[in-house]
Sequence to fold (404 residues):
Amino acid sequence: MGFKGKVDKVLRWANIWFTQFRVASMENRSTTKEVGKILVIKIDAIGDFLIWLDSAKEFRKLYPGKSITLMCANACVDIAKHTGYFDEYIPCNIRKFEGDNSYQKEILKSLSGYSFDLLIQTAYSRTVHMDLLAAATPAKEKVGLVADESRTNLSRYITLPANRKKLDRIYSSLIPVSGEWLMEVERNGELIRGLGMKQFQTAMPVLPAYEAGPGILPKEDYYVIFPGASTPKKMWEIEKFAKVADYVQETTGYAGYVCGSKDEAHLYQGIVAHKKEGTKVVDYLGKTSLLELSEVIRHAKFVISNDTSGIHFAAATNTPSVCILGEYNYGRFLPYAYDKKQDAAYEAGVAPMVVVSANMPCRCCAVGKMTAECNACMASTGRYYCVEKITVEEVCRAIDQLKY
Fold:
């Protein structure tokens, strides 16, 4: 991160910190109108949104006959529309909403024109700006989860205790949650049960199939590689991905399709620079829409991915996968856990996901402390020590476990 990037980061977090006072003092917009409309707020990144699909399908059952509006990240709108679970959509770029005051005013002004019977804030790691969106939206009743108070939810963690209480009072009621550390599929299930569907059992998320246009799906046997991640801290060394590509070429002959955003071209180039001659890798970075990407993954033999949206696309399309997972928040977003895991018949139809991790004693440092060894690794490599420790041999053995 360059100097400008560091300055922007400091300014962003300063803005987040000061927002607590604005939200705590603002009027909580409400309404007494009965309009037959529900608002569901799910302002999350793509991977979190895909995890949520198992719970998202239940809102129609919870509120039959109601018009259900979804407020979600811009990037998730097409996925949400494709599911057919909602009637209307309010897109919001949450990062821009946090840092761009003119954009924030525009969104808040637009929300004042709506009216809902019920607003449902779905996030457990509920941020100050999520609360701002809820406060600004007129609704007769507002419901959320008791918030994540750990430092993994930094926006709330740095909020003063008195202001946290004021933010909580935005909601008519807060649904209790179980222990602090729970896989997100199961946490989402707590919300659905708290809303009234007491017997709801969580399962793997499902993204319905999409008809990709001509030329999107490869015409050869292939697997998918996701070498990127939301932060370099979670990214396995590119040289190791190249060695895994060599192994797959030698054992299966499959081509490796490298997927991710178009600004990750350097990662593809890194694999090309370190792979053996004859190992086929194809640049598919930024070549598809998200729905087209879901079909590229659905039709792949398997997926190899860092802890990023690619692995959650694999889960939602029931594609065999291997995840290279750091252990900082092990158990929250990966590995997958859900109620139906006790059902042998259900499990027989679930594609295998093999999570490769270093199994270190400092696991879950997101709610503890990073070790001196990890801090030294971060300083020298830019990645977590638990990611650095994962070997090529371990990932190759995981690939061998897949049924493809």
The chain has a mean pLDDT of 95. The chain has 18 helices and twelve strands.
